[in-house]
Amino acid sequence: MNKTAEVVIIGGGVNGCAAAYYLAKKGVKDVVVLEATNSIGHGGSSRNGGGVRQSGRDVRELPYAMYGIKNMWPTLSEELGVDTEYTQKGNLRMGKTEEHLKKLRTLADSAKSVGLDVRMIDEKEVKEICPYLSDEVIGASWCPTDGHANPLTTTLGYYKRALEMGVRFYTDAPVKALQKVKGKVRKVILNDGTVFEGETVILVAGYESREIARTIGIDIPMTRLIDECLVTEMQPHMIDVMFGCATADFYGHQTHHGSFVFGSDSGWEVVDEMVDPSTNTADPSKLITNSMTLSASSRAIQSYIPALRDAKIVRSWCGWLDEAFDGVPFLSPVEEAPGLILACGFTGHGFGTAPAVGLMLAQMVVGEKTVVDISALNYNRFKPVR
């Protein structure tokens, strides 16, 4: 086993696989990807609600979210040789009260200030776009260029193409620590003591990135938060758009084969120990589902989409997301740790921006200017100033 590479990527999720692919595409084929579990895309990368959206984002994320949707997602299936099921039919973020609409209007105005095509629409136009919604919906924000895709096929598409182009992937390779050599991050040490070495290390391992970075004295200000997903049985065709609500109770879409996929939270996740019923312990690696969130999100979905009231849930699951303290990711080299690039803290909405993020990580490695300015996402934004 060759344990040296030009670039070592820690994390085999969609952003890690995308970075590996774009590096290989730029000619950097001496790349190793280390995945802690026994399968690529094992975590949230392949198990999320599939949103490819710009609306509702922090303005610091919008430039690269917009870049990816304009320049990358439309041709991604052809490029990767898989059906990503990318559908660009818009995104409704619904409201039932004037307070809801006020919140949506604030988000829309903020997005419009950086050039996004998003506007408020009234109850009549909402029903024209989607007649299956509740009469309680009095308005929504509408972004016609938003959409959704299949996270599993997209993640595995990046993996497949990177593998074909010479990238080496190792599963069952949990990272224990980083190590500097002559002041530069170079060594990646696995739990079993195996050591990989690279000229550049990209740390894109979700919340686990925090513990790994701490081994060289870098503390990434983020925490972990539980998020829930559910899938319904196949339904008649009803909805092409991506949708959510002002209160962020849920978001989702109808897939190409008819089932609905929803992501959700109830607000109570932080107090739930998430006990694994097979062991009666709160093992965070064996989360099954969160009963509070599942019931709350089901009620919320029914209240907005009454046509789904009798739809059966065929499966549900939950997992940890890496929540940055200010809600946007860390995408930058680390000044105090030369050779290390961070890509974590995506706060549950990193799938839709993965093409742009993967491209920009590759650009950082080869010394190119990123396609858009992401200086606001630099790790040092939390550096003490007094």
Automatic annotation (TrEMBL):
Domain FAD dependent oxidoreductase: 7-364
GO MF annotation terms: oxidoreductase activity
InterPro entries, alphabetized: FAD-dep_OxRdtase, FAD/NAD-bd_sf
Keyword Lyase: no
Domain of life: Bacteria
One Pfam match: DAO
Alphabetical UniProt keywords: Oxidoreductase
Gene Ontology CC: cytoplasm
Keyword hit for ATP-binding: no
Name this protein carries in UniProt: FAD-dependent oxidoreductase
